[in-house]
Design brief:
This protein has 49 residues and is mainly beta. 0% of the residues lie in helices and 39% in strands. It has one domain.
């Protein structure tokens, strides 16, 4: 996923094995909220990207 991190910047993250809801409001310095809607909440990351 790639989202805005300001007027000219972006930020990137990789997600897998679940259903996510992504929210980002309009702002000078936007905040991206990522909510895990399903999947295993107890399993940790198995590798570092």
């Amino acid at each position: 996923m790639t989202s805005a991190a300001g007027a000219t910047r972006t930020q990137r993250a990789d997600f897998y094995d679940g259903i996510f809801q992504i929210r980002q409001g309009r702002a000078t310095q936007p905040v991206t909220d990522i909510l895990l809607m399903s999947g295993s909440y107890l399993a940790g990351a198995t590798r570092v990207p």
